Structures are given as C-alpha cells and as structure tokens.
Fold this sequence. Notes:
By secondary structure, the protein is α/β, with parallel strands linked by helices. The chain has helices at about 15-30, 40-50, 65-75, 90-100, 110-130, 165-175, 180-190, 200-210; strands at about 10-15, 35, 55-60, 80-85, 105, 140, 145, 150-155, 155-160, 180, 220-225, 230.
Amino acid sequence: MIFRMNDVRILVVEDEPSLAEVVCLYLKRAGFQVQVAADGKQAMAILEKQIPDFVILDLMLPEIDGLSLTRWLRDRSNVPIIMVTARREEIDRIAGLEMGADDYVVKPFSPQELVSRVRAVLRRTGREQTGAESERDLSLGDIHISPVSRTVTVRESQIELTAKEFDLLYLLARHPRQVFTREQLLERVWGGAEYIDPGTVTVHVRRLREKIERDPSSPVRLLTVWGVGYKFEP
Length: 234
C-alpha cells in the first residue's frame, strides 16, 4: 500500500500542550490528518476504537507510559511508531526500539525534522510492501520467508516479527552473503540514514538473532562482518 499524505492519520501522544500544538501544526501543513492525545489513558481510549496509520508517542506520559503503549500496539499492529523522549541515555532509546518503535527523536527537536522522519518511514513502508508482492518466497535451509503474507517459518514453526524485523531479514536473505553496511540497511529498510541512529540496525539484528538462531550468541545465519556491517549466510 502506498500512502498519499492527506490520507495518513497520525496520532500524536504528547502531554506538553505547546509542543503538541507545534507538532500538529507542522504535520497538518505537510498534509497529514492529525489527532492528539494528552496522556496515555486518552491515547489508549483512541487506539482501542481504531489504530491510526502512524503514531508519534512521548516516552514519559501520565496515566500510561509510552513504553507500555508501544508494547500494547505491537501486540496488535505493525503501525509505524516514532518515540519522542527527553531522555538522552542510550539505554532509554534502545528500550524504545526493542519494544518495537521504528525511530526515536530526542527533545528538543526540530518539528520539520520530525516531519521528515515521518515521511521517511512512510516511504519505506509503502515501497517495501509494494515491491514485496512481486517477489518470490525464499527457502533457505530451515528458514522459509513469504513476502506476500509477510510470514517467516523457522524449523517448521512460524515466528512473530515486527514490520522492520521482517523487512531487514527479507532484504538480507534476498542477497545471501552480500555484506550491507549499517548506512545501506538504514537507507533500504528505514528509508534514510540522515536522522536515524545506526544503533537501530544493531538492535534489530540482535532481536532477529533471538528469533531465528538456535544459539543467538553464536549466530550462523545473521553474521557480523566486523568494521563493515552484516550479511545473511544461507
């Protein structure tokens, strides 16, 4: 599915009224439909009725925090999520990514940068879903990948992957033994490397290894090429 900007419904979950107002203004100017929730409880009430096309989510929220909302969403949907946080510690940003966020922004940030990140995620989502329909299934040893149904079977058991985990695995598996740098993976899976921390790739590779490798600490499929990037060994 390729989104047109004026068809995209974005939920902004932010408890700072002035920041929420500015973010909404820039998103609306960019052509998006925008709804705002002032806390986690209000956001949950909206999400239970209908999950939007995109969520911009503050990490620190009253009532229900951003990580809990992200976990709830990921149990039900692959909707793109950008997490907003005032915390600069790496462990907090990694926690958001491991919960399933597609990207994060650290306060203070440029509203125009946030709009650019939203567009980058949407471009990648639309491009990958459209291209996947023309691709064949992949069978690589005990791993079977179906791009049409976006499912992965490992040792005859279907595993659950987030949208970005699937996109990353499928890209690497389609090019066995080809080494991709982190920047190349950010460009092809996330739609651009300009605003996204390369650590995003590391987090997603680690999560994939936990799901497809017999021993994630000694991987034989998703291999690190030190000083360069990653490759898939068929």
